[in-house]
Specification:
Layout lengths: L3 E4 L12 E4 L3 H12 L8 E2 L4 E2 L4 E2 L4 E2 L4 E2 L4 E2 L4 E2 L4 E2 L4 E2 L4 E2 L4 E2 L3 E3 L4 E2 L4 E4 L4 E4 L2 E4 L6 E3 L4 E2 L4 E3 L6 E3 L4 E2 L4 E2 L4 E2 L4 E2 L4 E2 L4 E2 L4 E2 L4 E2 L4 E2 L4 E2 L4 E2 L8 E3 L4 E2 H31 L1
Parallel strand pairs: 1-2, 3-6, 4-7, 5-8, 6-9, 7-10, 8-11, 9-12, 10-13, 11-14, 12-15, 13-16, 14-19, 15-20, 16-21, 19-22, 20-23, 21-24, 22-25, 23-26, 24-27, 25-28, 26-29, 27-30, 28-31, 29-32, 30-33, 32-34
Antiparallel strand pairs: 17-18, 34-35
Length: 288
C-alpha cells in the first residue's frame, strides 16, 4: 500500500521499503494537518431534529445542526455552523459562537457564552452555580451566583468537566486553552490564553492562571492564588502559594521542581545513610 513517513531533519533513513520520506521541521504538527486534510469533517446543511425543543426568540445562524432531544432555551443565539449533539441543554440567553461543536448531553447554564470554534465534549457542564456558602450557627447559607461563564475562541473542554459561573464577576477561559476530561474550574477563576489543563485537575475559585500555563494531571491549585505566565505544574502537585512566571513546580506542597528532585534523591539515600550511622554507633559502643 502507498504510504509516507514524516521525519525530522537528520532523523535517519526511516523504515525500509519504498516509502516516501517527507522531511519537515515539526512532524507532529504536519501530521495534524495531513489528518485534517485526509479526513475532513465537512460542512453540513442546517437541520433541527424533530424531537428538539426550541424556546421563544431563539436565533439560528446558517448551517446550524441541532440533534435529537436537545433543549434550547429562550433567547439563545447559535451562530453559523454550530453543532449541538443529542440531549444538549442550553438555558435561556446562552450564546454559542460560530463553528462551535457541543457533544451529547452538554449543559450550558444561563450566563454561559462561548466564542468561535469551541469544542465541548460529551457531558461537560458549563456555568453551573459555584460552591459558595457562608457558614454560621444555623448551617451553611448558599451564596447566589449571578456572574457568567465565558469561553473565548477555540477553547476545548473535555468530557464530564465542570466550569462554574462567577458569583458576581465572570469565570473566564482564555482563547486557545484546552481543558481535558474530569477537570473542575471553580467560580471566578480566570485562565489565560493557550493553557493546557490535563485530566483530573482542580482549579479553585478566584484562582488566576496566566497565559501558556501547563497543569499536569490531578494537580490542584488553591483559591485566590496566581500561577504566572508560562509556569508548569507537575502531576498531582498541590499549589498552596502563588507561582511566579516561568517557574516549574511539583509535589505537595508545590515547590520548585529541582528542589523536589533533590529531596526525593535524598530520601532514596536515607536508608543507606541510616545503616551507615547505625554501624558507626555500634562500632563506637564496642570500643567504649
Amino acid at each position: 500500500a502507498a504510504g509516507a513517513v514524516l521525519l525530522k531533519p537528520g532523523a535517519g533513513a526511516g523504515p525500509a521499503g519504498p516509502t516516501v520520506r517527507i522531511v519537515v521541521s515539526a512532524p507532529q504538527a504536519a501530521m495534524a494537518r495531513v489528518l485534517a486534510a485526509m479526513f475532513p469533517t465537512g460542512a453540513e446543511d442546517g437541520s433541527v431534529h424533530p424531537t428538539a425543543r426550541l424556546g421563544a426568540g431563539v436565533m439560528l445562524g446558517d448551517r446550524v445542526v441541532i440533534g435529537p432531544y436537545a433543549v434550547v432555551g429562550d433567547r439563545v443565539v447559535l451562530e453559523e455552523g454550530v453543532r449541538l449533539g443529542p440531549g444538549v441543554v442550553l438555558e435561556a440567553g446562552v450564546r454559542i459562537g460560530a463553528g462551535s461543536d457541543l457533544g451529547a448531553h452538554t449543559v450550558c447554564h444561563e450566563g454561559t457564552r462561548l466564542g468561535r470554534r469551541c469544542v465541548i465534549k460529551a457531558g461537560a457542564v458549563l456555568g453551573g452555580t459555584g460552591f459558595g456558602y457562608i457558614s454560621g450557627r444555623d448551617g451553611h447559607v448558599r451564596i447566589p451566583h449571578v456572574g457568567g461563564c465565558v469561553l473565548e475562541d477555540e477553547v476545548d473542554v473535555g468530557s464530564n468537566s465542570c466550569i462554574d459561573r462567577g458569583s458576581i464577576d465572570d469565570t473566564v477561559i482564555g482563547a486557545g486553552t484546552k481543558v481535558d476530561n474530569h477537570v473542575h474550574i471553580g467560580h471566578n477563576a480566570k485562565l489565560g490564553a493557550r493553557c493546557m489543563i490535563m485530566g483530573g485537575c482542580v482549579i479553585a475559585g478566584s484562582a488566576e492562571i496566566g497565559n501558556g500555563v501547563i497543569i499536569a494531571g490531578h494537580a490542584a491549585v488553591g483559591g485566590h492564588l496566581r500561577v504566572g505566565h508560562g509556569a508548569r505544574i507537575g502531576a498531582k502537585a498541590g499549589v498552596t502559594s502563588s507561582v511566579p512566571d516561568g517557574t516549574d513546580v511539583s509535589g505537595f506542597p508545590a515547590r520548585p521542581h529541582r528542589e523536589v528532585l533533590r529531596a526525593q534523591g535524598a530520601m532514596g539515600r536515607l536508608a543507606k545513610i541510616t545503616d551507615e550511622l547505625e554501624a558507626l554507633v555500634r562500632e563506637r559502643g564496642e570500643r567504649a
